[in-house]
């Protein structure tokens, strides 16, 4: 399979952020660790299967990290990686823009 060539860094960043739930997941992680069930409870219209799919994508992109604890019942948490934290100023601008022009 041929690798996609991007014409500029903006195109690549847009590709990563345009996936459904990505921005919301990253935004929810801005305050610290979050468990899978918490994502499901906070993202309307989501289900556990889709959340896990998106979390795995974000792990692959190295935007978040997964922490699993050897306890019963199983405990899994997600946190922003340093690369993910670098996106926070962009997400803050997006949030501010949305509040200013689209919030009711």
Characterise this structure:
- By secondary structure, the protein is an alpha+beta fold.
- The protein has one domain: Winged helix-like DNA-binding domain superfamily/Winged helix DNA-binding domain (Arc Repressor Mutant, subunit A, Orthogonal Bundle).
- Helix content is 52%, strand content 13%.
- It is built from six helices and three strands.
- A three-stranded antiparallel beta sheet has the order 1-3-2.
- A hairpin with a 5-residue loop joins strand 2 and strand 3 (75-80).
- The longest helix has 14 residues, at 88-101.
- The radius of gyration is 15 Å and the shape is globular.
- The model has no long low-confidence stretch (mean pLDDT 92).
Task: Describe this protein with a few key phrases.
104 residues, alpha+beta, Arc Repressor Mutant, subunit A, 3-stranded antiparallel β-sheet
Q: How far is it from the N-terminal to the C-terminal residue, by CA?
A: 45 Å
Can you summarize the main beta sheet?
Answer: 3 strands, antiparallel
- Uncertain spans: none
**What oligomeric arrangement do these chains adopt?**
single chain
**How many individual β-strands?**
3
Rg result: 15 Å
CATH topology: Arc Repressor Mutant, subunit A
Average pLDDT for all residues: 92
Share of helix, binned: 40-55%
CATH class: Mainly Alpha
The tally of helices reads 6
| Sheet with the most strands: spatial strand order | 1-3-2
| Derived structural class | alpha+beta
- Overall domain count: 1
CATH-defined architecture: Orthogonal Bundle
Q: CATH superfamily, called what?
A: Winged helix-like DNA-binding domain superfamily/Winged helix DNA-binding domain
Which overall shape is indicated by the principal axes computed on the Cα atoms? globular
- Tell me the strand percentage band: 5-15%
H/E series, N to C?
A: HHEHHEEHH
């Amino acid at each position: 399979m041929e690798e996609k060539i991007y014409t500029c860094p903006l195109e690549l960043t847009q590709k990563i952020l345009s996936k459904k739930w990505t921005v919301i997941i990253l935004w929810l992680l801005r305050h610290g660790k979050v468990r899978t069930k918490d994502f499901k409870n906070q993202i309307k219209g989501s289900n556990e299967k889709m959340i896990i799919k998106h979390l795995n994508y974000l792990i692959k992109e190295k935007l978040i990290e997964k922490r699993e604890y050897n306890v019963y019942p199983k405990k899994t948490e997600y946190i922003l990686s340093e690369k993910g934290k670098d996106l926070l100023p962009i997400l803050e601008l997006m949030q501010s823009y949305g509040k200013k022009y689209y919030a009711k």
